[in-house]
Amino acid sequence: MMDQLIDRFPDQLTEALEIGAEAKIKQHEHEIQHVFVAGLGGSGIGGNFVAEFIADECKIPYLVGKGYDVPNFIGKNTLAIVSSYSGNTEETLEAFEKIRKTEAKIVVVSSGGKLINFAQEYGYDFIQIPGNWPSPRACLGFSLVQQLVILRKLKLIGHEKLDEIRSSIDLLKFNNETIKETAKKLAATMHGKLPIIYTTDRMESVAVRFRQQVNENAKQLCWHHVVPEMNHNELVGWRNEDQNLIVIYFRNKDDYKRNQTRIEINKTIIKKYTNNIVELWSRGNTLIEKSLFFVNLGDYVSYYLSEANQVDSIEVDVIDYLKAELAKV
User: Fold this and answer.
1) What is the DSSP letter of 255?
2) Which one of 41, 56, 274, 281 has the lowest number of neighbouring Cβ atoms within 10 Å?
3) One of 216, 219, 224, 289 is an active-site residue; which one?
């Protein structure tokens, strides 16, 4: 099932663009000076990607919150995007209630649930995405595209980022077989090892997404860090040989030159402690194309790794248990 959902990622992006084109977003009566996105898990990671995608264009701060609380700066000059695939995420609903007490411009992105009901009841703009996907983490395309759509309709960005989503769809379809082959080989190499994911700071969302997919789909732990920050702390932690560790670098040929130099030096240091170092190189011309290429590749890796681990990639029983226990309190 999960492999079929991953197969549909390019089509999901297409559908998301079509939904966005039909969305009605009213202009705000006050100047928007900052954006706050409330969302967790598969809904929240979309905000992280968008923050990276628009950093070279959007002239106002774009902050993603992943908890119950919201920052005190939220007010009449804030665009608040509230994103929850189910519409019933506990933390997001509480954040929504706090945002409602401000004069922020609120836009809801959800498939239904309480959030859509509240948006309709209170007259907030909303974009309703399809609710027939069995796994919210497989709906990243819906989340991130709608955030770009909202920014575009409120004239905070131009049309170029959405055009790059369209070109990414062609890239993913053209490279589908190559992506799958690479993913199968990497999953086989990763099997039985603890993955450590490194990339540069401009692509941290790719590393976070891959980590989360390995956690949820393959049912195993891993961690990530970014260059150059890890050169100021984590690099010192490499002291003991451990061949059960596997380091995976997500790399781009246009990464900042000093960061590329840092990675090469890092590799010489890390090779003293593990022989398992893999470098993945992106395809595409823009940050969006490269990032979505890596997303699709990483999603496939997590699925093939779930097969190697002999686990159900869809199942998240421990999260369901957590929610049930919280409901008792």
Assistant:
1) S
2) 56
3) 216
Read off the DSSP letter of residue 270. Answer: H
**Residue range of the domain that includes 194:** 176-308
Catalytic residue (choose from 155, 232, 253, 257): 232
Return the pLDDT at 132.
Answer: 81
| CA nearest to 16, candidates 94, 101, 130, 114 | 130
Per-residue tokens: 236: 């010192």
**Pair 146, 58 in one domain:** yes
pLDDT at 134 over 90: no
Give start and end residues of each alpha helix (H) in the chain.
2-7, 9-22, 41-53, 90-100, 113-122, 140-153, 160-174, 176-190, 204-217, 257-270, 287-308, 317-328
Is residue 15 located within the same domain as residue 147?
yes
101/122 same-domain check: yes
Closest to 66 measured CA to CA, from 226, 222, 250, 208: 208
Q: Assess whether 221 and 102 both reside in one domain.
A: no
Report pTM: 0.96
Q: Is the pLDDT of residue 64 over 90?
A: yes
* 8 and 83, same domain (yes or no): yes
Nearest CA to 198 among 143, 278, 83? 278
216 is catalytic: yes
Give me the CATH number covering residue 238: 3.40.50.10490
**What's the whole-number average pLDDT of the chain?**
97
Helices (H) and strands (E) in the chain, counts: 12, 9
Clarify whether residues 226 and 77 are in a common domain: no
188-244 tens-digit pLDDT: 999 999 999 999 999 999 999 999 999 999 999 999 999 999 999 999 999 999 999
DSSP 203: G
Q: Are residues 132 and 239 in the same domain?
A: no
Same domain, 265 and 247: yes
Spot the catalytic one: 26, 30, 185, 323. Answer: 323
